[in-house]
Amino acid sequence: MSAPAIDTAAQPILSARGLVKSFGGFKAVDGVDLDVAPGSIHALIGPNGAGKSTLFGLLTRFHTLSAGKITLDGHDISHTKPAEVVRLGMVRSFQISAIFPHLTALENVRVALQRRHGFDRQFWKPVASLRALDAEAMSLLEAVGLQDLRDHVAVNLSYGRKRALEIATTLALDPKVMLLDEPMAGMAAADVAVVAELILKVRKGRTVLMVEHNLGVVEDLCDRVTVLARGRVLAEGGFDEVRADPVVKEAYIGASDDD
Ligand SMILES: Nc1ncnc2c1ncn2[C@@H]1O[C@H](COP(=O)(O)OP(=O)(O)OP(=O)(O)O)[C@@H](O)[C@H]1O
Ligand SMILES: [Mg+2]
């Protein structure tokens, strides 16, 4: 599949400068710069403990910054509250949009939609709004291929379908930027292919930043790759460029020796 041309010279939709996160004396993120081009699928890769999830936590303001600056779509969000970051259009999947196991697929998406309407403060006509919400929820279920399972309780869905439902609940918040932390983790190959297709489908009009250990997925989906190791950016570029980088190879081999 051919990736669409991404204008990396365009103003980044998400930009980080000099990000640091210290836990006690230990710097889990140690001076990271990152520019994510609008409309791109950008991968964040690196060995275990490199600081990828901590960096996501900084970007979504789940963690406070020890130093640095984050800009989202022109807004300085370095000290913004997490809920405000969501309102500004950046949502981390599998965090805010956790699934309620004993609600149906449709109910889960409806709850997420109500949350968004709550942010907008427009959700004041419950009865009239409910039908509209159901229609919107159904179209989101269709977008992720779960329309026939609308009345199934989430806990009974297969692993891949739970992930699809999580993506639907994230889409319900209508994010400009979606952060996906290991969307394929623990998945069988068949499910990986389904979720990869899904990410390609939902990227339209959005930007995706994803942590992913499956390098085949990164190669297929991502326009740009940033490699982290020991809290620092080791390399950045297209997949082939990064894969050929001896420093990157060394970091991966070095890390597996440590394990
Ligand atoms: N709350 C915390 N307190 C102390 N140390 C932490 C905390 N969170 C993360 N760390 C440490 O920071 C480093 C980076 O962790 P992080 O989870 O960001 O790595 P990662 O790149 O996401 O790894 P993985 O690929 O295993 O998910 C690790 O050494 C981890 O032990
Ligand atoms: Mg992690």
Automatic annotation (TrEMBL):
<dbReference type="Pfam" id="PF00005">
    <property type="entry name" value="ABC_tran"/>
</dbReference>
<dbReference type="InterPro" id="IPR027417">
    <property type="entry name" value="P-loop_NTPase"/>
</dbReference>
<protein>
    <submittedName>
        <fullName>Branched-chain amino acid transport system ATP-binding protein</fullName>
    </submittedName>
</protein>
<keyword id="KW-0067">ATP-binding</keyword>
<feature type="domain" description="ABC transporter">
    <location>
        <begin position="14"/>
        <end position="255"/>
    </location>
</feature>
<dbReference type="InterPro" id="IPR003593">
    <property type="entry name" value="AAA+_ATPase"/>
</dbReference>
<keyword id="KW-0813">Transport</keyword>
<dbReference type="GO" id="GO:0005524">
    <property type="term" value="F:ATP binding"/>
</dbReference>
<dbReference type="InterPro" id="IPR051120">
    <property type="entry name" value="ABC_AA/LPS_Transport"/>
</dbReference>
<dbReference type="Pfam" id="PF12399">
    <property type="entry name" value="BCA_ABC_TP_C"/>
</dbReference>
<dbReference type="InterPro" id="IPR003439">
    <property type="entry name" value="ABC_transporter-like_ATP-bd"/>
</dbReference>
<keyword id="KW-0547">Nucleotide-binding</keyword>
<dbReference type="InterPro" id="IPR032823">
    <property type="entry name" value="BCA_ABC_TP_C"/>
</dbReference>
